[in-house]
Design goal:
587 residues, mainly beta, six-stranded mixed beta sheet, five-stranded mixed beta sheet, 6 helices, Cu-oxidase_fam
Amino acid sequence: MASFGAFFIFLINIFFLLTLSSAEDALIPYEFEVSYITASPLGVPQQVIAINGEFPGPTINVTTNNNVAVNVRNKLDENLLIHWSGVQQRRTSWQDGVLGTNCPIPPKWNWTYNFQVKDQIGSFFYFPSLNFQRAAGGFGGFIINNRPVISVPFDTPHGDIVVFIGDWYTRNHTDLRKDLDDGKDLGMPNGVLINGKGPYRYNDTLVPDGIDFEQIDVQPGKTYRLRVHNVGISTSLNFRIQNHNLLLAETEGSYTVQQNYTSLDIHVGQSYSFLITMDQNASSDYYIVASARFVNESRWQRVTGVGILHYTNSKGKAKGHLPPGPDDQFDKTFSMNQARSIRWNVSASGARPNPQGSFRYGSINVTEIYVLKNKPLLKIGGKRRATLSGISYTNPATPLRLADKYKVKNVYKLDFPTKPLTGPPRVETSVINGSFRGFMEIILQNNDTKMHTYHLNGYAFFVVGMDFGDWSENSRGTYNKWDGIARTTAQVYSGAWTAVLVSLDNVGIWNLRTENLDSWYLGQETYIRVVNPEPTNKTELPMPDNALFCGALQKMQKPQKITSDASINGNGLKLLFTLLNVLRLPV
């Protein structure tokens, strides 16, 4: 039986969450034990971060407006936060799981996240957001299904399969982190994993014997939904399945105009849903491939993820050459045109029973404009850093949201520039001051030599334009003002720009970052602060009772006694669901 004190606090937080949401919104509880395991995805034993002993971690599967409670037990030897990438945390920025909003969960402690997946559908994932830990795993899927009353713009697939792709190093994340701290590059990754496994031995020279590979079993004639996430460190990957079309149907919470692709570039941090019909003759198994983009392909040949699609009536093993990817190693035009072709299905319903296109973003007046420019890594004060508009972000000891709540001074500055600095770069805790219910235009200018993906917490933004060269006022003439895709990430090609529009209707302090893990770790991020001048529970819920304290507020933190079996199970779960049944009364 769990520690009663910890369990009682858990129940109090569940009660609080439910009293502020509809009585019809179910609560879905999860238990996460985060620990190290030894695994050998590329044939080399190494330390991997697992959830409940699994790598990748379990999939959270919920429905629009469900309340989600995830009790996280930190069995690592360092601080931990779990971030729910793409989950907008409407009214609950306290649950976002990044250093701007949360104090870390110390080793041997547990902490319960409580939030509602309000007005969202789609394919997302979670991951540990601190200390370069995502390079060691700790990630898993997060599916938000439509409510039964909302139609989905395609027939129900026979199966729903989550696929994680990503570059991978055989060095531990602590060693990778030290290399970055010492000013070194990480170098070429050792491989690409598919669902935490190494490549199928399609080539005896490139792939050693004895590596476990991913196999997806399917039935002929059936259609499956594959939710594919690039959870890697910094490598853009081209995803394809031999002899099969990928019918794109959804990306990061928005249904798309359905289009077939033979392959699609998926950049770091991005998620896509494909409908794939098993319409081949099954003369053999088929290759599933995730290969690196915009690299010297002869040098990167071994850095290729290969899995197997296996029909139940397959007549033999896959053999021969892998299906080729795009033939444009140094020309990114094909990839950009492919990205531009991804459009919003304006006639489909999303989380609500009205068409996605009922929000006419193209006719809203922009109230704030920020041009954010990156550059290659540089030294500031003798340390190698990554910058955004000339500022390299440093996390304060006290989270921004806590500093606001308790009026702690000198934690951060609301002075992030609207245009890149012209003077020398600097290391600061500089934050964007967003206007509640404003409409912000953000231009992401990539002057680095590599591809970047940018992510904004708390929102889905509209990707309205991208092109090579420098953005200018005249670039607005190329914007898509009708069916630009609404999503949480946007790729920005080297030597190019991407423009997004976002409606600042979600109160909180929201992280804006590169998803390239090395540059993020070295400071390429900021936050957008959105405050309702007339605070109310309708726009932001109160700080949770179980909030952790650190930094200038460390003295407010009470000690936590955690036993090895401090989980919600057995009789505890029965008590929990008894309480939930009582709480089904109208509120």
